[in-house]
């Protein structure tokens, strides 16, 4: 897939701490009937929060991803419906008639109410069912504790707790010359309002895990499959905030794996 120009993700922690700088999608399986039944019988909508398992905001007809601070997760919805085999148009970030029809078809397949609205119940099915290359997730990610595991080839981050999948997000990493380094490291520094000391660019909800590499919200990413960082793992700002709320104050281990893309 064609990559656009690199963005300003930086090893800013190098300056702030006085350190020296460190040198095709597989088809997704449908959600199981057992899981579907469990989700249908889950807590009422009023009890739903972004800390719930496989949580995402409700997305409906007419919404759009209008900027880095106004992401409605429409592109993500379109990508995941495509991987599930229900959306065959271009990924535009605009929730129109084709996206609504795809949502209804997916809901029918999953035995959900065919509202055409991607609510948290549908997202729970869709996110769980579109974790790609699930069998390639390293064994270290399945150990006890919290693990955030980034597959460079799939632009995918999964959060696991004691071997159980908690959530997954679309992300992007470093360019060919600044590839996000492979390996496993514990998060050692967090800064909710971090600003790059090298470029002056905001890096909200930063969680540093390897030298200057961090998981953080990006001020420039609208499509995770276009552009690159300078080595950090870019997330949508609200996704980075969600990861922060799920892991802040806890030991988080980050594993980077997979071929570069």
Question: How would you characterize the overall build of this protein?
Answer:
- A 5-stranded mixed sheet has the order 3-2-1-9-4, covered by helices on one side. A 4-stranded mixed sheet has the order 5-6-7-8, with helices on one face.
- With 261 residues, it is an alpha+beta fold.
- The model is unreliable at 1-8 and 10-45 (pLDDT under 50).
- A hairpin with a 6-residue loop joins strand 5 and strand 6 (202-210).
- It has 2 domains: 33-129, PGBD-like superfamily/PGBD (Muramoyl-pentapeptide Carboxypeptidase, domain 1, Orthogonal Bundle); 133-257, L,D-transpeptidase catalytic domain-like (Beta Barrel).
- The radius of gyration is 18 Å and the shape is globular.
- The chain is built from 6 helices and 9 strands.
- The longest helix is centred in the middle third of the chain and has 14 residues, at 97-110.
